[in-house]
Amino acid sequence: DDEGSDEEVIDEAKFYSSQDAQKLPFSHYKSLGMKDRSIPLNCGSSTTTIVGCNSFGKQNMAWIPKEGVICYSIENVVVVEDISTQKKQYLTKHDQAVSCLCSNAEGTLLASGAGYPSKSSKRATIWLWDVKEREAICTYEGPRTGIQKMAFSSCSKYLAAISIYPLTKFFVYNTRSGLLIKKGTCSFMINDLCWSKSVADAAFLAVGKQNVREFSVKDDKVLRISDFKQDEMQNGITSVLYVNGDESFVFGDTSGKLWLKDEGECTILHQLGSEITTMAMEDGELLVGSRRGHLCRLSYLRKEGSWEVTGKAMLNEPVLDISFGSDMSQGVVRLATSGLSHVNLGTGELTPLVDTHKAAIDFILPSEDHKTLVTVDANGSVSLWHTEGSIQKVMEFEGQSPCLSCALSKQGDILVTTTASSAVNIHNLDSNKVDAVTGAALPPQFCHLYEDEASALLLTENCDVYHLDLERRDLALMAGIDREAPWLQASDFRPPGQLVLANSNWIEVYKVEWEAQEVVREHEYPIGNTSSGPAESVHIAFLESKPNSVLYGNTTLNEFLVVDYVSNQAISVVKFTSPLTQFSVSRDRTTALFSTKGSTFVLEASESSGTVAVDSMKLKRHSSNAVRALALGKASRSKIQILYAFGKTLVLY
Length: 653
Description:
By secondary structure, the protein is mainly β. It is built from three helices and 56 strands.
């Protein structure tokens, strides 16, 4: 129990590939997978909405039935959501990803811990919050390598925390004085801790490998009072809880065994079949969750003095957090993929508690009136959201194949998606219906809607152009282009009949003859790419205020050009020092949004003079590999709505 130093820092690449990391309990290893992805700290303003739920961390949910709220984190933001009204409030003091949350027994205090293991990481922070007022009370300085788990003592006077790495360190804070009273080191890797239920006697357990160590806290002095080691246990202890009036405790291990330590003897209560990841205890009822999604309920029979399994369910994905709900028949779980849900403890039926995405978001499509929004994730699943007032998911279509391109109608009622399996899906978002159309020789990479003709244009990388009749659900190949090899990297369509195709070397403009079902090339412009290979990405869009021009950029040039394809002239409008990552154009074609590493640029084309102006906006701590999808909705002349996603998190800014 020596104090030790918390100045040790981790070599991430070396540690993640080491055997020690591979042997870590699943929930602990999930903490090590955190990334430094932060939402700007002014995101708490009334003009910003955040959708998502962190899927990392051992303990990242706090259910407070007294207040009717659930607390969870989205990247560096703590969300307090009212279950009945779905109203969200954002707590925005952290500037690093929040790794864990916990509340006290009375539901009056909330603690949030942030930070992640990195040799370049800042020191972790713990914030203490007043739940009712949604205000910060104080902050504590944590270790340099992040917080894995925290717990309040039963009297709320003390808060204990475990660091993510090094794996042997714990910290105890006095919440009333705001002081760190103990910085200790165990001789074993700490995977979990819990406090006794007794108000008079503050004691806590720290567990890991085959060890359980008990500490007492009195007058701000932390003393080790006992040690227990289960020598025959071949697997590490992952979770621990006091039971039966703090006279005994239960603990789970990486093989799925649930153990009871009572009166010096250790017995197996139950076998779940996979690593025990989380436990919760209330009024003699014990909930246990596992890595493979096992959910088990055990009840203590006081007359017999024994435990009995009273419920089982299979949730089919890792259970990261668990708690009893507002009554003992309901539970609240945080799942690794599906996020936060209510669970019926009798049937195992899940009811989503917080709207989120099951996979990373690839596309964001706002409707013209900004009342609805569509997102498409990496699995090809489509979600429809209402965005008036608070954002709410109202419909979801399960994906069968990753989406390559998509287009949404102005009213937000028709969505066309193309998939990696070559299928084209027409979603009627009013009637909750999907029709699949086949017939393309190659998977279409680009999709453009022409609503006046109830049509869509679909393009493959070989420049095959297909006409999709939305009413007849018919797909036909249009004549005019015949290329044998992949060529196309970007395209755009301007009604009624202008189509532009581009790659790293060329821009070609075509006229679409709807009656004749063909496309006719009218103009071409050589980019003059001198590199030996194609650019990683190419972006192109028509400009409404410049009828004979397109906006063009690629990652080799690292600049955007306004190209007049009639006069064959090009003007550079902005150059970059880091590669382009995302690109989006408003529906009225007056504004474009594009991002580089750490910056987002807004380009506006004046409708009166036709001039093009560029402003940069710093979206702090967003890296080039973080922003995965970007969209733009221009609400007025002076206000621009930016929609972006990284991972499963969606931000309307």
